[in-house]
Amino acid sequence: MYLFQHSIDCVIHFAALKAVGESMQQPLLYYQNNLLGMLNLLEVMRSHNCYQMVFSSSCTVYGEPEYLPITETHPTGKITNVYGRTKYFIEEMLKDLSAADEKWNIISLRYFNPVGAHPSGMIGEDPTKEFTNLMPFMAQVALGKKPVLTVFGSDYNTPDGTGVRDYIHVMDLASGHVAALNLLSNNHIRLKVYNLGTGKGVSVKELVNVFEKVTNTKIPLKYVERRLGDITAMWADATLAKEELGWTTRYSVEEMCTDFWRWQTMNPDGYPKKSKTSVIVNGKS
Ligand SMILES: O=c1ccn([C@@H]2O[C@H](COP(=O)(O)OP(=O)(O)O[C@H]3O[C@H](CO)[C@H](O)[C@H](O)[C@H]3O)[C@@H](O)[C@H]2O)c(=O)[nH]1
Prior knowledge:
The protein has helices at 2-5, 20-25, 27-47, 82-100, 134-142, 170-186, 204-215, 239-245, 253-266; strands at residues 11-13, 52-58, 105-111, 113-115, 149-152, 164-165, 167-169, 191-196, 202-203, 221-224. By secondary structure, the chain is α/β, with parallel strands linked by helices. It has one domain: 3-Layer(aba) Sandwich (Rossmann fold). The strands form four sheets. The chain has a four-stranded parallel sheet with strand order 1-2-3-8, with helices on both faces. Helix 7 (204-215) packs across helix 9. The longest helix is centred in the N-terminal third of the chain and has 21 residues, at 27-47. It starts with a helix and ends in a 19-residue tail after the last helix. Bound molecules: galactose-uridine-5'-diphosphate (GDU). Galactose-uridine-5'-diphosphate binds at residues 18, 20, 58-60, 113, 132-134, 137, 149-152, 163, 165, 204, 227, 230.
């Protein structure tokens, strides 16, 4: 309907399910939502003559890294979870599509580990289901809503034994999308992939230390076995995004923690739940 009313130049496709554990228990839900959703969207775009897209992909397409930092030319596809496979299958689909029809102009952005919130404290992550990601869980512990942060593995081959990831502030992620849109609007590239990461690996322990320092809280830790399917360490080589998108990250790990904490303390229960509209008739509700 809206496509008839407005001329759409480009679609940014964010809509997907993304819980690794859930994807293993309900694979059909993930294939249905992520793959069929993408197929339907591409069909609708084509039928309305819109051939430009920015797609939210993930560093999960790389699987266990063969080398670090990871460049975009690192092999993809050796993935151990269903969620990651949906991202990988979509990337393959986009390759076939852009090879078959030169009208397509697509950028796939491989996010590393997005964290943080809008610096205003008014926009942040409000998961509707039980969540398992490190920063939101840690913030719940700091708020006293969970008793302890479980650290999955302390025997990894990393400097302090805990898993290492490339955490990226959501504001930097957002500016990566603006840069991608700019590139698409001025160039016909058919299909390109870019890593969006800081290029810096941070361990679980390091992130906890920074979080405690900037929020002036204490996070009780409990070390347990490694989590099934977790990789040891992963961080990006984001040189290509710098050279071709003119994009670099600006936010530090301290700011990621500060901004997430601001959002969390201003909205301890997430976004205000919608209240039922009350109708007032003659002064009575
Ligand atoms: O309670 C927790 C949660 C996490 N971790 C550790 O913290 C690190 C980060 O874990 P996350 O769950 O926050 O994120 P992942 O690295 O598992 O990220 C995966 O899930 C994300 C989706 O939420 C992205 O899709 C990403 O690409 C994909 O690799 C890992 O070493 C993990 O073992 C803990 O020690 N305790």
